[in-house]
Structures are given as C-alpha cells and as structure tokens.
Amino acid sequence: MEKPERLIDENGRRVDGRRFDELRPIKMEIGILDKSDGSAYVEFGGTKVIAAVFGPREAHPRHLALPDRAILNCRYHMTSFSVEERKPLGMTRREVELSKVIREALETVTFLEEFPRASIDVYIEVIQADGGTRTTGLTAASLALADAGIPMADLVAAVAVGKVDGQLVLDLCDVEDKYGEADMPVAMAPRFNSIVLLQLNGRMTPEEFRKGLALAQKGVSEIYRLQREALKKKFSSVPPMES
Ligand code: CDP
User: Fold this and answer.
1) Which candidate, 100, 101, 198, 240, has a CA 20 to 30 Å from the CA of 92?
2) Domains plus CATH for the chain?
3) Which residue minimizes the CA distance to atom 9 of ligand 1?
4) Which residue, judged by its Cα, is nearest atom 20 of ligand 1?
C-alpha cells in the first residue's frame, strides 16, 4: 500500500479508524488442529496466525538432546501468500531471527527442566501479514503450548506500540509499521509483570519510551484476558459421556 497523506486525521483517528490506544479486532481459538499436541489460531485485524506444538517428545537427532532439560525448537514462517510481494519460499534471514527471539521469549516461561532429553517443537505459520506478526505469533504460540499441556509459569501476551505522525499508538497495522517513525514490539508474562521480549525499530525519546511501554502494558492485559477466556472456553466444558 502507498503512503497515505496522513497516518492520523484531524479527529485523532488512525488509518483504520482506531483511536491511539485501541487494539484491532481480536479472535483467538485453541485446539484447531488434530495432528499436533496443541494448537491455536490468533487474528489481530488483518494479521492471521496459526501455531502448532508437538511434544514433549524424544529429541531428534538424539545427540542434540540435553540431559537436564528439554530443547525448545521454534520456527516462525510466513506463507508465500501472506504478503502482497513475492515472499521467498525458504526461511529468510528475518524469519530465522524472529524464530530465535520468539524461542527466547517462550523459554522464559516454559518449565523445560521437567522434560530432560525431550524436545518441544513450536511452529508458527503466518497466513496473512498486516503488521505485528511476531507479537501475534508469540501470543498464539503460548496458547498452543498451554493447549498441549506443557507446564508454564505464565502465558505470553504480546503487542507492538509505535509512533506515527509524532503520536504514540497501540497495535500497529502494516501501513503504520511501514510509514511510522518507530515500532516497538513488547511481549510480557503478565502474571509477573515481566517483559520477555522488547525490540525497538526507529527512535523514541526516553519519555515516549516510558509512555509507550505503559500503552503496551494496557494492550497486553486485554490480550491476556482474551487468552484466558479462549483457554477456559475449551477446557471448562466437559465433553458428553459416551454411552
Ligand atoms: O510483523 P512484525 O511487525 O512482527 O515484523 P516486521 O518485520 O516489522 O514486519 C512488519 C510488517 O511488514 C509485517 O507484519 C508484514 O505486514 C510486512 N512484511 C511484508 O509485507 N513482507 C515481508 N517479507 C515481511 C514483512
């Protein structure tokens, strides 16, 4: 999409009509796949992501197994139809980097030491990208881990904040990400109020950074509420007994 004349109009509305502190419409669903041990679908506006988890299972190849904990493998991947421009088929440098930072964030909350010599494999497939795919991917991956019954200290809830037309905004869409002045993805383990991923692309003053972080925290607490709701939806109802 071309650069719009303005990213915020005279009424303070953003390109998609949101106020500065509004999240996009969010959908979350757990257990959407049959073949994996855990799965989740998460949508933030036009960004649509599926996460699937296998494990804990015996690590392969065996020589990579660790004697005192499980290995967490993580692959973030964008499908070739997720973006307008042709996306190379294999893993790009960006996807390798994002797989690493997502893995590191998930490692902080997962009790890997409970499964020595095992591996837990997390697959994140971006099926449509419209900004915030790493944060949506992380949010989906932690739900898929929970769905697989992997013990965790907390879920990970994530959202980006940024600066567009000089103003701080929550949950950037693609146009805001591309043409804005700054983009700061933040992922948290909300129960501990701890930050498990924070990146900054662009520039912010220390004051903007503080305000941006507070804005991200506000978004994270709403995302966390929706995650717990999605988990309850699946696990609080008991399937009917077979006769
Ligand atoms: O998606 P996220 O904001 O976590 O990462 P990014 O590298 O800042 O990418 C921002 C957005 O650029 C993505 O969400 C996509 O909408 C878009 N993008 C794209 O159109 N083509 C790519 N090969 C990579 C990203």
Assistant:
1) 198
2) 26-235 (3.30.230.70)
3) 131
4) 83
Closest ligand 1 atom to residue 84 Cα is: 20
Q: How far apart are alpha carbons 157 and 195 in whole angstroms?
A: 10
Contact between residue 172 and residue 183 where contact means Cβ atoms under 8 Å apart:
yes
Beta bridge pairs of residue 79: none
Phi, psi of 126 (to 5 degrees): -85, 115
Structure tokens at 212: 């941006």
Query: 83-117, pLDDT tens digit by residue?
Result: 999 888 899 999 999 999 999 999 999 999 999 99
CB 223 within 8 A of CB 139: yes
Residue 7: per-residue pLDDT = 95
CA–CA separation, 215 and 20 (whole Å): 9
